[in-house]
Write a structure and sequence with these properties.
This protein has helices spanning 6-18, 68-77, 95-101, 108-111, 183-194, 218-228, 235-247, 294-303, 325-338, and strands spanning 22-25, 40-43, 50-54, 59-63, 80-81, 118-124, 130-134, 159-166, 168-169, 173-180, 200-206, 209-216, 231-232, 259-263, 276-280, 285-289, 307-312. 27% of the residues lie in helices and 25% in strands. The strands form four sheets. It has an eight-stranded antiparallel β-sheet, sandwiched between helices. It has three domains: 3-169, Uridine Diphospho-n-acetylenolpyruvylglucosamine Reductase, domain 3, CATH 3.30.465.10; 173-234, 2-Layer Sandwich (Alpha-Beta Plaits), CATH 3.30.70; 255-339, 2-Layer Sandwich (Alpha-Beta Plaits), CATH 3.30.70. The longest helix is centred in the last third of the chain and has 14 residues, at 325-338.
Length: 353
């Protein structure tokens, strides 16, 4: 066993023996996400460092406690980046926390989700076993990819020791265009433009203004800009806008309660709910500030085939997942397999797990 893992395995064994919980924590930037678990803090930051990075292979492997900023400095030096655009939320998250949260930024609709970039992972489960899944190359996955279970698990299945992630070359150029549109008009336009051969890498709508980011080869971006029209944002203003949406420092997304996260089909119409909106992902992600009763929000979203979670609540409770009975049963079996004593971040993601 790697000597660096000994303290973590011992802490898990002691917690199992004592019947006490462990709170897995990296940079703490997502403490608001989910319910706040009880138990002693298991600090992942000492387990840090880039294990392997080969730019020509487009893969980086880093330990769970490695800061995102440290990894991105190495990627930037090679003209590469994480295409899923992970949020920072005003701090410096760890790689393990980034994967455990499973969150993706404005590029999600065009580049895919964080889980799509996970190639392999090493975890310590709730019995102190060291488990390795997947690998560190892009052609090694066959059958069920267990490593991707860690994406969005919020630490309830295991401690992420290290993870291998696919990286991408940075776009040659980027431009952002803005348009004066209503919400329904913006949703229709985003979906129409996404079906065209344009290098869209981000869309937002808020307070009557739609913003479209184009990323790629200079000729492709220039052609798209000429075809779409709109008003071009300066580089600094564009960068500030997309960063504010990614990291939730945008005036709409900064912590003021209540804030709902609505996941719906991108073509879904505007919903009959009171409140104000910020729209992302070509219409598929909609942030709603509303005092509407929870049952009304869930009913309106279910009616269009989507789901809703209360991201920030008046009692400072974070977002958790409400599952149908079949999905909940699957999650219970997974939790039982990885953490039979239920000591790892209990209740953080799903009530009772």
């Amino acid at each position: 066993m790697d000597e660096l893992l000994v303290p973590y395995c011992e802490a898990i064994r002691e917690a199992v023996s004592a019947g006490t919980a462990l709170r897995i924590r990296g940079g703490g930037t997502k403490d608001f996400l989910g319910r706040h678990p009880d138990g002693a803090v298991l600090d992942m930051r000492p387990l840090a460092g880039i294990v392997d990075y080969e730019p020509t292979e487009l893969v980086v492997t880093a330990r769970g406690g490695t800061s995102l900023a440290a990894v991105e400095r190495e990627l930037t030096a090679q003209g590469q980046f994480f295409a899923f655009e992970p949020p920072r939320f005003g701090g410096d998250p760890t790689i393990g926390g980034m994967v455990a949260a499973g969150l993706s930024g404005p590029r999600r609709a065009s580049s895919g989700a964080l889980r799509d970039y996970v190639l392999g992972a090493t975890v310590v489960d709730g019995t102190s076993r060291v488990l390795r899944f997947g690998g560190s190359v892009m052609k090694n996955v066959a059958g069920f990819d267990v490593s991707r279970l860690m994406a969005g698990s919020c630490g309830i299945l295991g401690v992420i020791v290290d993870v291998s992630l696919r990286v991408m070359p940075r776009p040659e150029v980027e431009h952002t265009l803005t348009f004066d549109l209503g919400a329904a008009e913006a949703i229709a336009a985003f979906n129409r433009w996404s079906r065209l051969p344009f290098p869209l890498s981000g869309t937002t709508w808020f307070d009557g203004r739609a913003s479209v980011r184009l990323s790629g080869a200079e000729a492709a971006v220039r052609t798209a800009c000429r075809t779409l029209g709109g008003t071009a944002l300066g580089c600094d203003e564009a960068r500030a806008h997309w960063t504010s949406v990614r990291d939730h420092t945008h005036v709409f997304l900064a912590p003021r309660v209540p804030l709902w996260r609505l996941s719906v089909p991108s073509t879904a119409p505007t919903l009959p709910l009171s409140g104000s909106l910020l729209i992302e992902w070509n219409g598929a992600l909609r942030w709603l500030r509303s005092d509407a009763p929870a049952q009304d929000v869930h009913a309106a979203v279910r009616a269009v085939g989507g789901s809703a979670s209360l991201w920030h609540a008046a009692d400072d409770a974070g977002a958790t997942i409400a599952l149908d009975p079949t999905s909940l049963a699957i999650h219970r079996r997974l939790k039982q397999s990885f953490d039979p004593s239920g000591i790892l971040n209990p209740g953080r993601l799903i009530d009772g797990l």
